[in-house]
Write a structure and sequence with these properties.
Beta-Lactamase, about 55% helix, Helix Hairpins, disordered C terminus, about 425 residues
């Protein structure tokens, strides 16, 4: 718009300047003696030629720049339209300016009705997409406030009324501190998410199978004791208080083992709350002690941050540490030691799980945590991937250090709410 106004003004200025020059020069010629008339006419022509030549040069230069910019814009447009992601350009007020071909096909935008419309305007036009468009407004505003690239997973309904999951990147653009535009790029990851969920279910079944095998072995021990004493009573036809106490004690042990298995395996809804590090570590140690004993692994707990307070979903964190300790036990088939050490570091709690196992080669260590990569014969390789994600959701860090023949150290840091001393 400004370019058009500038061109019109430039043409008007050139026209007026030329008119002035012709009128002024003729006036001067009339006033000059006849002898100087020819020289002045020649000078007048030279000035006109020079000015016109400069103007033509500038016009050609500007035209070449315009053609080059147009070619670059066409190349960029071709590239954007070829992308397998939806791309949307918005202005500083959040109005839709342009979308690529993929977005038009995905959202059935056959006309330019979307242009100069905000998400709220679009929500009024398409009520069934209202909640998704309003969510866009919220996420756009977050990107503007942060002033940097943001990334979110969004569930978005398309015109076929299928709900798809997109990995959406928002890039806010500024000019002299003002909002100039917003670029939104979204990739359909619905199939990837479905595959991850299926693989995760398989991984959970594999873990439950391993856990059940360990629990079954633990249950068999007290059952053998009970069976022996019952047979002894039958053969001797006598019963003593001591024998009854042993049988009851073993039955209580079986009940405790089964109760722990049920609590661990029962799907838990996400509950965010404050809890002590001691509560987390003691429960994890209790859950894994049976398997550690089975494989002749000594678990040593050095809980120096026992009274520190964490905030989050304790069930998810239990899942993480049980997985880490089970991996530690698996790395010591001939027995060994696993040390669980906690410390307060500034405003964080550092929890280390250190084993004396076989260690992990460097080339494999770099791939650990990648989806579907595993060192085990069984399992889908998602245990550490999900553990890492859970820790990231809790604003923490997850690091693995290992050396072949020297064991492995898993370092997890979590933000601490505050430190609570025992009274």
């Amino acid at each position: 718009m400004l370019s058009k106004i500038f061109k019109k003004r430039l043409l008007l200025i050139y026209f007026l300047a030329s008119l002035f020059w012709i009128t002024f020069s003729e006036y001067i010629i009339d006033k000059l003696p006849t002898v100087n008339t020819n020289l002045f006419q020649i000078g007048k022509g030279l000035v006109f030629v020079i000015v016109t030549t400069v103007l033509i040069h500038l016009i050609i230069k500007k035209h070449d720049a315009y053609i080059q910019a147009l070619e670059e814009q066409n190349e960029l447009s071709t590239l954007i339209n070829a992308m397998p992601d939806f791309v949307c350009f918005k202005d500083g007020e959040g109005k839709w300016v342009r979308v690529n071909r993929y977005a038009k096909e995905l959202f059935q935008l056959h006309s330019d009705i979307y242009k100069n419309k905000t998400d709220l305007d679009m929500a009024k036009m398409y009520p069934k997409f209202e909640k998704y468009l309003i969510k866009n407004v919220q996420l756009d505003e977050e990107a503007w406030k942060k002033g940097v690239e943001t990334r979110n997973e969004q569930k978005i309904m398309i015109f076929s009324e299928d709900e798809k999951t997109f990995d959406v990147i928002r890039v806010p653009l500024f000019e002299e501190g003002r909002r100039a535009g917003l670029v939104t790029i979204g990739r359909d990851i619905s199939n990837v998410k479905a595959a991850e969920e299926l693989a995760l279910r398989r991984e959970k079944l594999s873990v439950v199978g391993e856990l059940a095998a360990g629990i079954a072995h633990e249950i068999r021990n007290p059952l053998t004791t009970i069976k022996g004493f019952v047979q002894f009573q039958k053969e001797k036809n006598e019963s003593t208080t001591e024998i009854s106490d042993i049988i009851l004690s073993e039955l209580d042990r079986i009940n405790q083992i089964v109760s722990e298995l049920l609590v661990f395996s029962k799907p838990q809804s996400k509950i965010l709350k404050e809890f002590k590090v001691k509560e987390l570590i003691d429960y994890v140690n209790k859950l894994t002690s049976h398997e550690a004993t089975l494989y002749n692994v000594e678990v040593i707990v050095e809980n120096h941050a026992a009274d520190s307070i964490l905030y989050g979903d304790i069930n998810e964190l239990i899942q993480v540490f049980v997985n880490v300790i089970k991996n530690s036990i698996d790395a010591m088939p001939d027995g060994g030691k696993t040390r669980i050490r906690t410390n307060n570091v500034s405003d964080k709690v550092k929890i280390e799980v250190i084993d004396t196992g076989i260690g992990i080669p460097k080339e494999r260590l770099e791939k650990i945590g990648e989806p579907f990569f595993t060192l085990k014969e069984k399992g889908m390789g998602l245990g550490l991937t999900m553990s890492n994600k859970i820790i990231q959701d809790h604003k923490g860090t997850f690091t693995i250090k290992s050396k072949v023949g020297f064991g492995t150290k898993v370092i997890i840091t979590l933000p601490s709410k505050h430190h609570q001393k025992e009274s």
